[in-house]
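Backbone geometry:

***
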Amino acid sequence: MFDIFKRSNYTASYVHLIRRAKRENRRKGDGTYYESHHIVPKSLGGSNRKFNRVLLTAEEHLRAHLLLPEMVSSAYHKHKMACALSRMVHGNREQRKAGAIQFSLIARKKMAETTAGENNPMFGRQHTAEARQKVSESKIGIKHPLFSGFYHTPWGTYESSHQAAIASDGLMKQPAVHRYCGNPDTVITKVSFALNHYLREYHDESVIGRTWRSINFFFEPAQSAPLLNS
């Protein structure tokens, strides 16, 4: 079973940890918190059958996944093991307390090591301009996983404050769009008027004292916002 791993002190420590846990015939519900662990990880071809699983305490489980990246040879498998370690550390399990912060820092370091230099799958390569554009477009506005709503401005409605800032032709930067649309009932002050290119271009000082909403700046949450093309 352990032949898939290279011979090293890391592997020896891992084997000792697994065999000790197996000898104890552990069972869930006996008063100790256990987590099920694949002895040979599924990403390395391990089975989901009983013989390839063992119950470990939270700390033992973390230690096992900390050892695994050091037990494989290829950069690809090292990265796989580091990803598994990172997912474990950031798992939302209240019971996992022992060493969590320490292991979290180590997991981040392992992830960085497995994607640095020649270990990075993009090492020595470059995305084409078309590929970069597609990646950029896939993460903008409503396609972004954190998309939350629409930014309404006097010059149009946009799926992100970034898009709205671009459409302003340089009259308002993204942080300003985000701030004014997110707080539309804020009163426009003399300072705001003096510093804001859009206000000076399209309004006079009579706008001072009014709210941003009154000149059509506001944010509309996604669940209540109409479709842009409706």
